[in-house]
Amino acid sequence: MNKFSDDNRCFVCGKGNPHGLQFQFEYDPELDRVSAEISFPEKFQGWQGVVHGGLISTVLDEVMVKTAGFKNLTCVTAELLVKFKNPAFINTPYLAIGKILEIKRKLVFTEGFLQDSQNRLIAQARGKFFIVDKKHAESL
Fold this sequence. Notes:
The chain is globular, with a radius of gyration of 15 Å. It has helices at 53-69, 134-138; strands at residues 26-28, 33-38, 75-84, 94-104, 107-116, 121-131.
């Protein structure tokens, strides 16, 4: 197994990355999900005024892997499927949500959503993540 460590420079959530998004994710034990209130600055646009789809995919990947992180599982992405439903606009508030669907041996299956302030679905994702921390993987 490889050793993975967090040096606080993650592009999505690392506070030590001055070029990153620096989003803050929170775990809600009552809903058993991870979420983050986010907004994309203009430098992340694709088409004029529209957030680049790659950034949306990146954020959905991160919110889903954070669901495992809040369960003390260190994971890396094995598979990511994103479906775009509506455009996301720059400088507009959104909510990213991630939830674990199932943990099976050394895999974590998740779902993620990006929605606007009217709960309109912008994008949805399914993810499969490898558990890379052997200590935690053996205890499942």
